[in-house]
């Protein structure tokens, strides 16, 4: 349900918002980074994750924030960077956004726009 809400938001917002990934595409080096830069949908998902992750970290205290940081690093290596196509990247981002959604303070959370 949450993945569907996030996907709906991205699909509805994509034509109206400029994609702004969380990193400088001029410095993209890996195939994954280049795929994100080449796809407005993936760039938007990356931008959302670029907002979700710091908001989640800020909502946590002490060791929990460090744990989330380690988890994010593991996600980058094992899930996102393991992808070889856009469909895999989209799934990886939607899954990660769904995992972090419960940690969002009200204003940053993506909501169902149906």
Strand content bin: under 5%
Distance between the termini: 12 Å
Runs in which pLDDT lies below 50 for 5 or more consecutive residues are 7-18
Radius of gyration (CA) equals 14 Å
The number of strands is: 0
Main sheet? Answer: none
Report what the structure shows.
By secondary structure, the chain is mainly alpha-helical. The chain is 65% helix and 0% strand. The protein contains 5 helices and no strands. Helix 1 (2-13) packs across helix 5, helix 2 (31-38) packs across helix 3 and helix 3 (40-59) runs antiparallel to helix 4 (63-80). The radius of gyration is 14 Å and the shape is globular.
Q: Notable features of this structure?
A:
114 residues; mainly alpha
Summarize the structure.
By secondary structure, the chain is an all-alpha fold. Helices cover 65% and strands 0% of the residues.
